[in-house]
Amino acid sequence: MQKHSRRLKNWDKRYLWHPFTQMKEWVRQEPLVIDRAQGVYLIDTDGRRYIDGVSSLWVNVHGHKHPAIDAAIKKQMDKVSHSTLLGLANTPSVELSKELIAIAPRGLKKVFYSDNGSTSVEVALKMAYQYWQNTGQKNKRTLVHLQNSYHGDTLGSVSVGGIDLFHKVYRGLIFKTVTLKGRGWETVSDFERLLKKKSSSMAALVVEPLVQGAAGMLVYPRGVLKEFRRLCTKYNVFLIADEVATGFGRTGKMFACQHENVTPDFLCLAKGITGGYLPLAATLTTQKVYDGFVFNDRDQKKFFHGHTYTGNPLACAAALANLAVFKKERTLEKLAPKIKFLAQRLKMFYNLPSVVGIRQCGLMAGIELKSHFQDRGCVDVCQRLRDRGVILRPLGNVVVIMPPLAISVDELDALLKATYRVIKEYETK
To answer: 32-62+330-427 architecture in CATH?
Structure first.
């Protein structure tokens, strides 16, 4: 095993290019190569176990190797692994669309599949834009987004991104949008002022409901999302809710919009949709939007967008099993005590001089450290946590905690204790 592990690590350095990674630094380090997993634990090629504290980048829901999801994928493989949705339908994608509409905020009626979070937002942006063109309101072209927003890495999604660290280098490639300033209610006021002047040219507002994840788990005040909905309705502007990160139980409800009884015009889903098994995304929308694309074929007003693996049967089978596990295991009901425990235990981090802020929404949390941690400190903290059997990832000077929903209270306690100790040790080194 050790010989095989060394070989894999060498091959990684020689052949693989990692995302969001400075490879010059990467090749100096000892790569951690994950070989298998079980429950909330990842296991490396040397047999060491780690709590998956970020749900394998915010996707895993019920734990790794869940027997029901494993079985569903194997069963689907015995039927068909892929069949295009261009000109055909397939059983799992049809069944999943019905299930998604059943659990989504009321008023959403149609499902369009793609393959990741960025493309789910890209679909919503293009649909919103084309709807106004199709219906003769060609002046409505402007897309509006929040400061510190993140919606993915394809160019359309980058265009509505507000984090310079990720997006500045691509400014020459993207289209012009409007950024709302401030945070919370300041942003709402900015949006209302803009609407009063320019609503006739505005196509859509895109937001991350309740939590701006990639910005460092920024939580905005209760009522802000509902007010965005009210203003969009009043001024005839579409509301796009990017629930790629917040969907499927992360905030304590199936979708963050449900905390304020908000139905967006577009609901963008990915990450947890398959329970963390396979790439799949969905953009849900209303009958009104759908009807804006229903014309005679000669009018050429269909939605000109699609992906090769749109509605992939294996991924849809995994997603159906994921939703079934939510029901059978009462996942959302069991979350409440874990969320309460997390809130209580996070308070101890204020005892650490380096901690300047703690943010939490459901089972999503961010521990903000002093600004000097942004350069290297948070990275070092997360690296040291691996020696304690915990995998976390930083966002700037914020240590992000987002474990699988299946994590037990004891496992959550172990994760938090290890994080506390490592930050404390780092402070006194």
So the answer is: Alpha-Beta Complex (3.90)
Tell me what percent of the chain is helix, strand and coil, each rounded to the nearest 5: 45, 20, 40
Query: What pLDDT, on the 0 to 100 scale, is given for residue 297?
Result: 86
Label residue 307 exposed, middle or buried (CB < 10 Å: 0-12, 13-18, 19+): middle
Cross-strand partners of 144: 178, 205
- pLDDT tens across 194-232, in order? 999 999 999 999 999 999 999 999 999 999 999 999 999
pLDDT confidence bin for 428, thresholds 50/70/90: confident
**pLDDT tens track for 379-398:** 899 999 999 999 999 998 99
| Contact criterion met (CB below 8 Å) for 403 and 392 | no
| Domain boundaries 69-328, CATH class | alpha beta
How far is residue 341 from each of residues 330, 361, 362, 363, measured CA to CA in Å?
18, 13, 11, 10
CA distance 89 to 313: 10
Strands 390-391 and 202-207: unpaired
Residue whose entry in the numeric block shows the structure tokens 């901690």: 355
Structure tokens at 198: 């320019």
Q: List every span in the chain annotated with CATH 3.90.1150.10.
A: 32-62+330-427
DSSP 212-242: ETTTTSEEPPTTHHHHHHHHHHHTT-EEEEE
Our CA dihedral for 25, 26, 31, 34, rounded to 10 degrees, sits at 140
Q: Where in the chain is the domain with CATH 3.40.640.10?
A: 69-328
423-427 LR contacts (CB < 8 Å, sep 24+): 423/349, 423/352, 423/354, 423/355, 423/367, 423/369, 423/381, 423/399, 424/352, 425/384, 426/354, 426/377, 426/380, 426/381, 426/384, 427/352, 427/353, 427/354
Q: Give the strands of the sheet with 202-207, arranged side by side.
A: 108-114, 281-286, 266-269, 238-242, 202-207, 142-146, 178-180
Is the pTM here over 0.90, yes or no?
yes
